[in-house]
Amino acid sequence: MAKTDSKFEKLGEPIYIGKARLKNRMMKNGTGFFWDNPETGGFMEDCYISFFEALAKGGLALAVSAVAPLQEGPMPGFRALSDEYIPGWKKWADAIKKHDCLAFHQLFHLGPMSPLFAKAPPGVAPTTIPLEESPRPEFEVPHEITIPQIHDIVDRFASAAERMKKAGLQGTELNAACNHLLDCFLSRAWNKREDEYGCQNMENRTRIVVDIIKEIKRRNGEDWPIIALINGMEVGLKDGINVEESSQFAKIFEQAGADAIEVRAEYYTWADNWERRSSTHFPDMFFYPYKSSQVDEHVYSKEYGKGANQLMAEAIKKSVSVPVIVCGKMDWENGEKAIRDGKVDIISMNRRLLADPSAPRKVLEGRQEDIRPCTSCMTCYNLGEHFKPVQCRVNPSLGKEKEFEITPAETRKKVMVIGGGPSGMEAARVAALRGHNVVLYEKEKKTGGSLPLAQMVKGTEREDLMIFARWQSLQMKKAGVEIHTGTEVTPATVDSVKPDVLVLASGGAHRIPDVPGIKSRNVLTSKVLHKRLKFFLRFTDPGTLRKLSSIWLPGIGKKVVIMGGRLHGCETAEFLLHRGRELAITDTGTEEEMGEGLIEVFLKPYLFYWLKDNGVEILPEVKYEEINKQGLTITTKEGNKRTLKANTIITAQPLEPYIELQKRMEGKAKEIYPIGDTKTPGLIFDAVHDGAKTGREI
Q: Which stretch of DSSP H or E encloses residue 626?
């Protein structure tokens, strides 16, 4: 690796966890990927090995794999329940270690935690708690674990660690965080026992974790490194873990043999309402949408959840002498500062490494602009909660590293891309990297397609779309793509370019409801709205336009009815609610279809709670009758006709394929590829993945 960029000098320094040397201060924490096959027993898969080898090649110092739940049952995950799993884990460890990266495994037991979108049997917990009192009432009511079962759990943890040592792994991360079983013993909110594993004192509360640490050390040797992963806090939860308690836990675990303490937190939302009560270990999700309550002095809340756990880690660091690791929307910028300021010793990342496994190397080489940026969209976690293989919105090659490896094209072709949105830019970038001569045309003065519009509506607090648009644009230029902006392509333009391949990526067509009065002056269609916003974006950026819209929003009255309750309609409502509008959202679809396109974990329910709490009326299964001066007349799903009074009616329907463009361009090249919304309207995820696939097929 080249000399470390002085800006990240601390991140580039080596450090030890026990006797294991990390070449820098960046690690990948243990998370599930759902790339295994539970039906065949959860044995190691080549795709998992390939991704972790990419991480190791990418300059990471420590890679941690999350071993599957140690309980029996239908839960997915790569297993370690018997010696027959050892050969697969050896292949995994060998692929990582040959690139000077440490290979650890994470051990956990889900305890009461059950997936929200898949069937699973009830788990176990220190205590059986009624739903009304449970910290997580969405889970199946767990069984109270018995003393013999506790002893069996200790043995399972230690036996799995033994097998990992035999497989050539180099250490254990012990997950006593989230709301997994071990955390539940530590938490007074979860643990109501009155025996030697109860919360009467610190010795009893920490007993099971201490027993596991000691047993692993006894079997694997005192030099076997162990990271104890704990919740620094259970934020907002009555009787939840606080920093004073977690500092004591850390000290006790160090005395038991832990060689490092990793700190994250569990954030409880709507904690005082059991019908809504939930939790997340993603701090950015805790603040969505626009939450400001329940924030403790130990929660860093100045950047909308970014780096939120570092103050907890700083407090815990004062209680121990072993390295302290922090995770929770950390990156190289805030990580370097946290290490320099003495708050932590190592930063632990996940989503950023899914987006770009080579991020650590690029950071230390001073190539931050080349890092494919995570937009914090939560697609990865949402798929996992549905028991589906984890994928990344911005990195189509995740889990397909071999399949998506950039290989030279057999025949060099002239490729013309119409449209500079996420699908067109990805197709152009990949095709150019493969050796094609690529030229891209974008109608607007800047590339990005609809991303600037989406960013203006969403804001950058939680999800930064423009950082990805800028990355795509820069990488296209570096790959040699010839870019023309401010140019609307006609068939004559294509004739002048004479491409071998034509990629149609100019976006979808606006769908306008066929309703009497749709052309009335009080109607603002999505087509007109987009055109108006794109005009203003020629002169400013999405952030500035968003700020201006808070004080000046021409053409939109006080009372607004939105025709469309899927992704576009809900995000429009979120935007307008912050600008003081009185809102109603209508849709012809069912209640289950409302919010379709929103991430179902956290984002969709949180947004709907917030909209309803702020007086937004949400009406599914309506029939549109007519638009008049008073507003929108509908027939409700109950069969009642009513008029929703409105100064402005906004259409926010899903897009349609851009058939007109496809017809105009027929026969203009030997190969024509309609992609993204032009072919099949979808999400940013679909556009990027379609562009990547097309760029590899040309």
A: strand 623-627
8-state DSSP, 596 = B
pLDDT tens sequence across 499-551: 999 999 999 999 999 999 999 999 999 999 999 999 999 999 999 999 999 99
The per-residue pLDDT for range 108-143, each reduced to its tens digit, is: 998 998 766 555 567 899 999 999 999 999 998 999
Phi then psi for 62, rounded to 5 degrees?
-145, 125
Nearest C-alpha neighbor of 281 from the set 353, 350, 338? 350
* Closest CA relative to residue 690, chosen from 512, 503, 515: 503
What mean pLDDT is predicted for residues 454-473? 93
Q: At a CB cut-off of 8 Å and minimum separation 6, what does 620 contact? A: 565, 587, 589, 590, 591, 593, 594, 637
CA distance 666 to 677: 18
The angle that helices 526-537 and 542-549 make with each other, rounded to 10 degrees, is: 120
Cβ burial of 530 (10 Å; 0-12, 13-18, 19+) is: middle
Q: What are the domain boundaries of the chain?
A: 6-374, 414-509+663-697, 523-651
pLDDT at 561 over 70: yes
CA distance linking residue 564 with residue 576, whole number of Å:
14
What end-to-end distance do the CA atoms of the chain give, in Å?
Answer: 34
Amino acid occupying residue 605:
P
- Cα–Cα distance, 343 to 350 (Å, whole number): 20
What is the residue type of 195?
D
Q: Quote the pLDDT of residue 70.
A: 63
8 Å CB contact between 466 and 509? no
CATH of domain 414-509+663-697: 3.40.50.720
Q: What is the pLDDT of residue 73?
A: 60
The CATH number of domain 523-651, selected from 1.10.287.1260, 3.60.110.10, 2.60.40.420, 3.50.50.60: 3.50.50.60
Q: Which residues does 402 contact at the CB level (< 8 Å), separation at least 6?
A: 46, 47, 50
- Helix, strand, coil % over all residues of the chain, rounded to 5: 35, 15, 50
Dist CA 335 CA 345 (whole Å):
9
Task: Identify whether the C-beta of residue 79 lies closer than 8 Å to the C-beta of residue 88.
Answer: no
- The answer to whether the CB of 56 falls within 8 A of the CB of 22 is no
Residue-level pLDDT at 2: 56
Phi, psi of 196 (to 5 degrees): -70, 0
Q: In the 8-state DSSP scheme, what is residue 530?
A: H
Q: Are 445 and 538 in contact (CB under 8 A)?
A: yes
> DSSP labels for 127-181?
S---TTT-S-TTSPPPEEPPHHHHHHHHHHHHHHHHHHHHTT--EEEEEE-TTSH
CATH for 6-374 is 3.20.20.70
> Within a 10 A sphere around the Cβ of 590, how many other Cβ atoms?
11
Look up residue 440 and give its two tokens: 């891209």
Q: How confident is the model at residue 291 (pLDDT cuts 50, 70, 90)?
A: low
The CA distance from 175 to 158, in Å, is 13
- Nearest CA to 399 out of 5, 16, 32 is that of 32
Q: Is the pTM of this model over 0.90?
A: yes
| pLDDT tens profile 591-628 | 999 999 999 999 999 999 999 999 999 999 999 999 99
- Asked if residues 572 and 661 have their Cβ atoms less than 8 Å apart, the reply is no
Q: Return contacts of 146-149, CB within 8 angstroms, 24+ apart.
A: 147/195, 147/197, 149/124
